[in-house]
Amino acid sequence: MKNIVLIGMPGTGKSVVGRALAARLGYGFVDLDDLIVERAGKTLPEILRQDGLEAFYALEEAVGTSLDREDTVVATGGSMVLYPAAMEHLRQNGVAVWLETPLSQIDDRMPEDLTDRGIAAPAGMTLRQIYEERRPLYAQYADVIAVSLEGAEETAQQVLSLLRTVDIHL
Question: CA of 169: how far to CAs of 2, 32, 155, 161, 164, in Å?
Fold first, then answer.
């Protein structure tokens, strides 16, 4: 059975929606950020501050290209779409669902210092610039686009309905 791979900006609810989806489907759940933290032995902000952006990118890409799961809802980091090989690997046995969220809502959920949230981006890059850089990549890799709704359960139900509508068999 196919995995459901959630993509989208940080703050769109990929982790909470992913857990709700997994519970509804009887699937496993994995947050790739957790796997990065596990491999590095430090938090995302610590990796970014101590090891730098390139080291973070290398770790994230390695996690994305090596994931081997079935019947799992996968919450990716917001920057996973920067790695074509990782996205192709994740989509080999998965359907990519973009949780699209308006920038204004994402902005409300983010701390002033994006590194505090573990957001991987070059120093000085604004949330709007990150959004504008990644938005075409989310669109490119998405098999399905779901608008992030108020509440994880509602968004999870919408994702399931969309998957059925486009006749994607899980």
Answer: 8, 23, 19, 12, 7
